[in-house]
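Example S7 (structure tokens).
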């Protein structure tokens, strides 16, 4: 696997990208969110890129405007469409034999792909899409609890485990935390945010196949599942996974999902 760096233009600004070369007919474009640089948290995206390239598929990562090495202003995920388009065009130019381009984004990068439609991409992989509007973020910080549906599912799972019931009877459960959790579980589900409704509409209207990946221990994923009717979409869940899929089994699961989509 050969890794090299390159530059590309986006509306007058210079962006920096990295390509892991391979000869496969499908390629993976990794989109970063927030202020995350193209290597990803703890170099997770760079490691994923290397593994996917070793499996035979070229991978392109890049810093959006105002992030990492790239010029310009980071205006957030809603204004990332031009960056994604520029990166996709550069990727296709570097790999002229590539016939299909799959884009992957996590959190608000997933939302950026959905809202923008993934310009110049053939398929999308949206991982733990961000659904919260600004006022929703404030309310979530105040509540400090996952969505009510996620709490109910967690308690139902515990009630099916004899060991958990025995721990409750022995007094091994913090009753204050239990009461707080039960209160949260009893809460009615909030109305979907404007962003959640927009994501659902964009997914429904998209002519591209979109795969939704949800880490079951991640609050962002839980909020998405609670506010979007996921039954109509290709949704895959990873039990025990956190937001960035850092657990060994979650890393393997994420790689397997990506490779499966690339192989179509």
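Recovered sequence:
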């Amino acid at each position: 696997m050969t890794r090299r760096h390159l530059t590309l233009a986006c509306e007058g600004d210079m962006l920096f990208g990295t390509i892991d070369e391979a000869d496969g007919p499908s390629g993976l474009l990794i989109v970063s969110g927030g202020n995350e640089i193209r290597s990803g948290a703890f170099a997770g995206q760079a490691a994923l890129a290397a593994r996917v390239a070793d499996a035979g598929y070229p991978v392109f990562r890049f810093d959006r405007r105002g992030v990492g090495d790239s010029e310009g202003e980071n205006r957030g995920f809603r204004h990332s469409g031009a960056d994604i388009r520029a990166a996709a065009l550069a990727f296709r130019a570097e790999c002229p034999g590539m016939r299909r381009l799959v884009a992957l984004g996590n959190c608000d990068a997933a939302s950026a792909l959905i809202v923008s439609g993934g310009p110049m991409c053939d398929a999308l992989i949206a991982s733990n899409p961000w659904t919260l509007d600004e006022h929703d973020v404030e309310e979530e910080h105040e509540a400090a609890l996952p969505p009510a549906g996620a709490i109910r599912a967690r308690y139902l799972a515990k009630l099916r485990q004899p060991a958990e019931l025995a721990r409750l009877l022995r007094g091994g459960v913090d009753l204050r935390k239990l009461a707080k959790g039960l209160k949260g579980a009893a809460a009615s589900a909030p109305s979907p945010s404007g962003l959640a409704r927009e994501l659902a509409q964009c997914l429904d209207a998209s002519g591209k196949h979109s795969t939704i990946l949800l880490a079951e221990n991640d609050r962002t994923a839980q909020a998405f599942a609670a506010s979007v009717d996921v039954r109509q979409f290709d949704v895959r869940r990873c039990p025990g996974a956190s937001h960035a899929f850092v657990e060994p089994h979650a890393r393997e699961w994420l790689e397997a999902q990506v490779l499966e989509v690339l192989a179509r």
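Notes on this example. Residues 117 and 206 are 7 Å apart (CA to CA).
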